[in-house]
Amino acid sequence: MSTPAAAPSSVLTAFAPSPARRRRDRRARAMIAGFTALALVPLVLIVYYLLEKGLSSWSGSFFTSDPTGASFFKNVSIGGIKSAILGTIEMVAIASLIAVPIGIGVAIWLVEYGRKSMFANIVRFFVDVLTGVPSIVFGLFIYITLVVTDLLGRGLAGYKGSFALTLLMLPVVIRSSEVILSLVPNSLRESALALGAPRWKVIFRIVLPTAIPGMVTGVLLAIARAAGETAPLLFTVGGANATTFSPGSQMNALPLQIYNDILSPTTSVINRAWGAALTLVVMILVLNLIARLISRRSRLA
Amino acid sequence: MTSDGSTPQTADMPSDELLDPQSSPIRRQTPGPAAAAADGSAKRQAASGKQAHSVHLEKLRAFYGTAEQVKGIDLDFHANQVTAIIGPSGCGKSTMIRCINRMHEEIPGAHAEGRVLLDDANIYDSGVDIVAVRRAIGMIFQKPNPFPTMSIFDNVAAGLRLSGVGRGDLHGKVEAALRGAGIWDEVKDRLGQPGIGLSGGQQQRVCIARSLAVDPEVLLMDEPCSALDPIATLKIEELIDELKQRVTIVIVTHNMQQAARVADRTAFMLSGDLVEVGPTQQIFTNPSDQRTEEYVTGKFG
Amino acid sequence: MSPASSASTRGTGRPHFQEELAGLENATLEGIDLVLEQIDRSVEALLHQDVELASIVINDDDRIDGRYLEVHQGILSLLARQAPVAGDLRLVAALLHTIKHIERIGDQCVNVCKLLPLCGNDPPTVPDVLELVVRMGTLARSEVAQSKLAFASRDAGLAEDLVRQDREINTLQRDIFRRAIEIGEDPDVREWAMTMTLVARCFERIGDNAVDIGEQTAFVVTGLFREFSDSRGDGAA
Lengths: 301, 301, 237
Prior knowledge:
The complex is a heterotrimer of chains A (301), B (301) and C (237).
Chain A lengths: L10 H4 L4 H36 L5 H5 L17 H33 L3 H15 L2 H13 L10 H26 L2 H9 L4 H30 L2 H4 L19 H8 L5 H30 L5
Chain B lengths: L13 H6 L14 H14 L7 E10 L2 E11 L4 E5 L6 H8 L9 E9 L2 E2 L7 H7 E4 L11 H12 L6 H11 L3 H4 L12 H13 L5 E5 L7 H14 L4 E5 L3 H7 L2 E6 L2 E7 H6 L4 H7 L5
Parallel strand pairs in B: 3-8, 3-9, 6-7, 7-8
Antiparallel strand pairs in B: 1-2, 1-4, 4-5, 9-10
Chain C lengths: L14 H34 L2 H32 L3 H30 L11 H26 L3 H26 L5 H36 L15
């Protein structure tokens, strides 16, 4: 913007940035853009590798046959990951069935009853600690208590893996549910109480319905995380290859499948590992998208 | 019964309940051998139509922990009249009004002492059903807060559903309540739409309908118009003028002009004490207490 | 005389409003000063049959009418913008009434002065009647002055005392009336005496207005409006 030579300086031009400032501005922006690009590089590479190496293994038999080769249809020589997918779904489902009700229950207690009491604060502290515990520790804990002792049944089993995943999901569900529940405006509780509702009705008829979309988001994210964890399953599940639906026996899971396959000398098996990895990422992506869509319908955060 | 200031009876006279058509609706809900007899008086009360119900505060004190916010108040709210409570911020007027429907004790660490009599029954007696108290003494809050997950119809019906009061003829009761709140014509064609889609003034009237649906005897209003524009405010004030024919109204307001327009009697509170109470006309033309004079003329507060 | 002595009820809130209200009260009380001057001049003119002074009084009444309009407008504006209540509201109502009474007093002075030229340049005066009339005027003047003092200091007792003085004025008026009847046969003297009864009536009305101002003072102080007893007295209403 060039000002005519004879024009008096107006207030606006007095505030125009100096050339030195403009240069510094540009340099800062270039630096930030550079860091962003740097951060994006590995992400882009990951997506690229996943697609390049994984897509090629995707086929109909890939999803319908076990690593053993047994299939819904014709048996194949190099199997797919059916048992892994089914195993992951089943184990995560069991874990969710346990973790979600308990987690939401604890969150409700923290927000509606415990509130700021000393005991509630202690509970919150421990939940926070647990969210930071490495997932392998949960696996080890279940290993020590259930696998080595054969307390509830012999050896490695699918349900023991589910328990480990439950422990993993619980703090996440509690935390996110607590946040959402505390975002419900207190004025809603007050109005419901003032109408003569007993406290439990206030929680279940007023607070929870308002909080549901946000809580579903939190639950889905917890599920997505559990689906991708390898370490808790290592010492608890065992990674069988055949499809089983009985949680009492050893099961397969996608992370285990990847872990086992990637070390194989056979190229096609390695490719299967990439295919499994891509599948896992896609599953988690889908869960994330659903969570996002639901959270947009939420009237809270 | 107590509308002209005659001393109220003491609360424990169950035998009189049978003969007394104006016995307090609170007592007719307390369980026990009087319950069966109380049904008769309840039916008689319902059949005789509108009754006049007064509230009497006796040495009411309210605490947050050890801090005394309301310091021993004796105050009458005459039946079918509007009483306004005015006073500077922090004088305890909101705290006091929340003691009348026992909402004060919902705050952790808060408690109240003294007696609050609805007609002839002390709502703080042991064994009194809080749900019954809040059904009989409704409350409208400062910020309109229709339940966000519910339609307009469900919002108005919420009071009936939450407090478990008779749900027969739900449609009829909802319509009557919306008519009573002066908003039936505006919403009758969109009862299924969410309650939060209305303007602020309309939302507040829906909240009033919600409270009216359970057929209260007393309506408490905590600065009901502070969040509304002037036209909506005037509509609510006109509504208050109509409603006082069927309910006794207590309104807390920081807007003295509103108290002057709307109330039959006005009470002035200062630092937890009741300074003066009297006919509104007298408070605003010739108050007895110097502090009242200074407050209403704006010399402080 | 500033109304500061009545500021005992005033705290520190709403300074602009309080200034405005005090300003209106000052304007009203100064209006009383104006009419006091007018009364003085009227009595002076009466005493010396000074027709020129009388015409000054008549012209100066515009100032009082102007003052009335000013206060009236100021009060309307204050009511609309500030919504005064309680003591302030009573004060505003009292000022409105008072400035009207002041305007009436001013009109009565004009009436007195308009009657003077009717007597001609050299009227036959009867000294004791003239003395009575002048005494009425002086009494009326002191009543008005006392009403101002009572209002400014919010002294209800002083206000009520006006009734006593007003009784005296009423007595004087009856005396003048009786003397006028018995004045004799001379038509010029009779005409003058009749004119004097009319002047007496004007002074009596001034006294009544002063008592009315006293009633307003009592209203501001007590919040109750009552007519002081015996303030009307006998004679034509």
